[in-house]
Amino acid sequence: MVKTFRYDTSKQWYKGNTHIHSIASDGGKSFKELAELYSSAGYNFLFRTDHWINSNAENDMEQYPLLWLDGMELDGQDHTGAYFHVVCLGRLTGIRNEAGFEAGLHSAQQQGALIILAHPHWSGNSLEDCVRWPFNGVEVYNHVCHWLNGKSNGLVHWDAALNHNPDVLAFSADDTHLRPGHPGWNGGWIMVNAGECTMPAIIAAIRGGNFYSSCGPEIQSMRFDGDELHITTSPVRFARIVGPGFRGDRKGSFDGHLITNFSFPVLTEWQYTYLEIEDEQGRRAWTNNLLK
Ligand SMILES: [Zn+2]
Ligand SMILES: [Zn+2]
Fold it and tell me: What's the CA-to-centroid distance between 157 and ligand 2, angstroms?
C-alpha cells in the first residue's frame, strides 16, 4: 500500500481547543466569558463539550470573538466495567445520560461525531480499553488532569491505539472548567491548518489529521520530499521522530543550543511515525501519524 504524507501546512494555522466545559454543565464560565478569554490568548475556535449536553452553537445568535463548534463529553462504564470519559466532536441530538454510556457512544458514532478517548490515564483505562471502541482520537495531554493529580499524559494509550489503527489522532486539550478548584486553561491545544476558520473547514482538517497538538512549541511548516521530512518550528531543544516500540530518531542537545530547522528521513515501513518537539521548558508538541 502506498502511503501519502498527511500534512499540508501551506494554508493558515488556527488555534483551538477540543475540550471545554461551561456553566451549561460543571464549568464556571459562560460561552461569552470563555470566548473572550480564549480569544485574548490567540484562539480561533473552541468546542463546547459539556457533560451530556447536546450543544447547538449554530443556533446561538450571540456574537463571539471566535468560532464555537459543537460537541459533548460522555462518561460511564462499558459492559466490561471499564470507566470512560469520551469527547465527541460534532452536532449531536437526542443523547441522554439516562440511556447510559454505551448507548450515548453508539448514538454519537451513528451521528458522525469524531470520538476521542479523553484523559485515559486519569480515568484508569487499560491499553485494551483504547481499542475496544473505535476511537478516532486519544487525548495525549489533558491540562485539568495535570492539575488534579498529574495524570495528564495519554501517550502510552495513544501508542496502543496507533498499533491497532495508525489513523488514530492525537489531541492536546485543556478540559477547561475555570471554577474554584479547577483554575487551568491554555495549557494544551491544537493548531489546525485550514483555508478558513469555518465549521466545515475546521472539521474537515481535524478529520484529516491536518493539525498538531501542543503544550507550548510551534510547528510552522512541514514538507515531505518523498524521503525526508523538513520541519520549521519555534526554538526547541529536542525533536524526535517516533515509531512503534523503541524505534525513533532525534535531533537536539543538552547544551542549551536550540534548533528551528531540521530534517528526518521517514521510514514508510513503520506502522506509524509521528514527530514530537520539546522546548526549553520541557513543554512538548506532537503531530499525528505523518503518513496515511
Ligand atoms: Zn472527563
Ligand atoms: Zn471534560
Answer: 18
